[in-house]
TrEMBL record:
Keyword terms: Acyltransferase, Transferase
Keyword Acyltransferase appears in the UniProt entry: yes
Superkingdom, natural source: Bacteria
InterPro entries attached to this UniProt entry: AcuA, Acyl_CoA_acyltransferase, GNAT_dom
MF-aspect GO terms: acyltransferase activity
Keyword Acyltransferase listed: yes
Name by which UniProt lists this protein: Acetoin utilization protein AcuA
Organism listed in the record: Paenibacillus peoriae
EC number: 2.3.1.-
Amino acid sequence: MQHLKLYHLDTLDHNGQTIYVEGPVSADQLRSFQMHKQLDAFRKPKEQFDALVDISELPEGRIIIAHNGETLLGYVTFHYPDEMERWSEAGMKDLLELGAVEVANDYRGLGLGSRMIRIAFEDRQLESYIIFTTEYYWHWDLKGSGLSVWEYRRMMERLMKTVDMVWYATDDPEICSHPANCLMVRMGKDVPLASQEQFDHIRFVRRFMY
């Protein structure tokens, strides 16, 4: 499958500072930045930075970033699902995971998350894919945000709905392990019916529930 990647750039001013939102970016572009020390939701900043570079080098990988010219302030990742997860079992070439969204604490509330996600979908470049994201409450920064589990869940739903992602049912054990967890999906306009049906069978492994 040919993975169309169309670069886009957006800017905003914040306290006299220009913040750039751009992507998809290459590994070489990423290496020109340093990682903000507050980008530690998933692993240590240096380790997460190395993971972003690795994703950007994948044929299907997409990294959208927010930065101030020197420092990464946020990022969004797209890639094939991890081979250890059920979503990879069918080997679907048109199924991409929106894997991580993170913004440094000092820059939250500026709409960077939604800006980065919207840029990823510009010019219909993801209309040939089923895009999904798995929201797990244990990845959420409840302490830093001061939000309850349900408030954070609503915030993530609003964020994903900016690109028309919607809640989908599933019998995946991890998602079903807590009522705040959820699966959100965007079915591209050019995704064939066969792929849509294949995804439905991945969502429900226990056939009696399907």
